Amino acid sequence: MNYLEALSRRYSVKKFNPERRIPQDVLLNILEAGKLAASSQGLQPYKIFVVESSEMKKNLIPAFYNPSQISTCSHLIVLVSKKNVEEAYLDGYFKHISDVRSLPVENLDPFRKSISKHFSSQEHQDILNWAEKQSYIVLANLMYAAAIENIDTCPMEGFRQELIEKILNIDSENEKVTVTLALGYRAEDDDFQNLKKVRKPNDKLFKFI
Q1: Which of 68, 70, 161, 208 is packed most tightly, with the most Cβ within 10 A?
Q2: What is the DSSP letter of 12?
Q3: Longest CA span, the chain
Q4: Residues paired with 184 in a beta bridge
């Protein structure tokens, strides 16, 4: 299956087959695609929670306005964005660059100062907006990789943020649940899979200049 076929087959699943579980190696491939997503300054201002236990998924059902996907999916991914980029976070980031690239951390000082200056001039809401945009790039990578792996998905924003944060013990002072993604295999009786995909025609969507 090439990538256009995979994306054409993809749709936002309304009901998964609860008897089918994603193999671990396939799941790890999808998560690796999320890890490799483009990220501004390479900062990856997010965490990726992977909910795989039946008990935890059951606990999360009340947090969603439409619980059918959560109650039937194989795995649920929760993308959590940072509300601020602290100096301690930058310390860890530049230490990691130093370790991976075998560079003295001092060599990275000009880059570090540039990033610090930028974020010190930003309002917290602006930083959160930026971080959430970064999280959606991860979401796109995850959905694309899942489609290539023949795994079905449903991205969801219809949830009670504060309830998810409480259940997952998320530091709501510094982090925010941005978007979730259910993964699994479509149920045979999910009629939405039989509907034709509706998208704008090319002349309404693309403008070549």
Answers
A1: 70
A2: B
A3: 59
A4: 152
